[in-house]
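Dear colleagues,

I hope this message finds you well. In preparation for our joint manuscript, I am sending the JmjC domain-containing protein (Monopterus albus) sequence together with its predicted structure, so that both groups work from identical material. I would be grateful if you could confirm receipt.
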Amino acid sequence: QTCSNLMPCILLHILWSQCSRKFPDAVNFWLGEASAITSMHKDHYENLYCVISGEKNFILLPPTDRPFIPYGVYQPAVYHQHDNGEFEVVDQSNSEKVPWIPLDPLDPDLERYPQYRRAQPVCCSVKAGEMLYLPSLWFHHVQQSHGCIAVNFWYDMEYDIKYNYFQLLETLCDTAGST
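The corresponding structure tokens are as follows:
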């Protein structure tokens, strides 16, 4: 609603998506500055990422690199702003802990996570007017230029052999204790 005047300019789907008879589950609008960084994660969506202005820099890792990507379990937290304007991180102690990737691919701690040496990251930049297809289950870390504007389209993934293979990798990593 904050940027509702921009909505008429944003398509609700990529025009050729009609051919597949598959429409996006979500269309996300992104506006940010250079200090906004998205930590390494994966999504269960096929992602078409379109940059309108500025530039996004992606570090991508395929699902087959899962054994080399560390996971931890963390307590969710929120920022709380005090009357003086200062922020404090407050644990949501009533919430279940969530799995997250503690590694910063820009400066990986290889002493702590030596298995990451075997990962094969791919770096790419997406500039204004360009689109990136980011397959489901691919790990990604994202940085952007100041004032970057982007829209992405999330299409539900097929729960096929790719998903089953990834679940096998997850189970093997959990069993081997390499999370």
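For the figure legend, we might mention the following. The helical segments are 17-20, 161-176. The longest strand covers residues 45-53.

With kind regards,
E.M.
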